[in-house]
Amino acid sequence: xxxxxxxxxxxxxxxxxxxxxxxxxxxxxxxxxxxxxxxxxxxxxxxxxxxxxxxxxxxxxxxxxxxxxxxxxxxxxxxxxxxxxxxxxxxxxxxxxxxxxxxxxxxxxxxxxxxxxxxxxxxxxxxxxxxxxxxxxxxxxxxxxxxxxxxxxxxxxxxxxxxxxxxxxxxxxxxxxxxxxxxxxxxxxxxxxxxxxxxxxxxxxxxxxxxxxxxxxxxxxxxxxxxxxxxxxxxxxxxxxxxxxxxxxxxxxxxxxxxxxxxxxxxxxxxxxxxxxxxx
Length: 280
Known about the structure:
Blueprint: E1 8-11, E2 18-21, H1 31-44, E3 46-49, H2 56-63, E4 78-80, E5 83-91, E6 116-123, E7 131-135, H3 136-141, H4 145-152, E8 155-158, H5 161-168, E9 184-187, E10 189-191, E11 198-200, E12 207-210, H6 215-229, E13 235-238, E14 245-249, E15 253-257, E16 267-274
Parallel strand pairs: 2-3
Antiparallel strand pairs: 1-2, 3-14, 4-5, 5-16, 6-14, 6-16, 7-13, 7-15, 8-9, 8-12, 10-11
């Protein structure tokens, strides 16, 4: 990272993740600093900005540097008044946070899934609720040549059915979703529009099946690909601290929210997403 930007980028794990020091996200960022952050984002996939004190408006402004800030298409969580694009993730007495302990890429069931997700820890109970991430470039690169050739020609269906069922069937901070939209078709291998690298683009939560295959036929291959992608050496596990802001690239990373806490351990987080293009 160029010294003139005044920031330090420290890698956190072998295949992805870096902490960025020297950035205050509560105000505007100059062009040189934005360019440096984007370079780090494309290199490390996951960026951690510690010790932030920001407003919802600050979070929206930062997210907007990566794409149009969009509300959740299914309104799956509460929103902040005046900022419908800011979702509230909350765990409190009597209303536990909805489970996210499954590997996924955010909103992959949309025609145009988000480029980036930005999650800010406003209230954190330390020692629980870690978030794990895996590198889907690496997952693709490590496949055999024969498997890569087969997957390069496949598409898969992504559906929100599991999310709709989760929000309907439990008393959590997740809001009921009235209707399940139609499934969408995405390539199993997508090419990142900015790095031109290929990444595996399936996940066990939203990907229901490969096209021209049944769900039953698809599941063993989906399970195999997930197991390859989430091997410990390809995972960064973040231990949350109050004031942490994390961003990740949904085009080339999956994540998993560890659910090892109950409603006696308060947790309040805000999430925004930057809209993207249809996977290619």
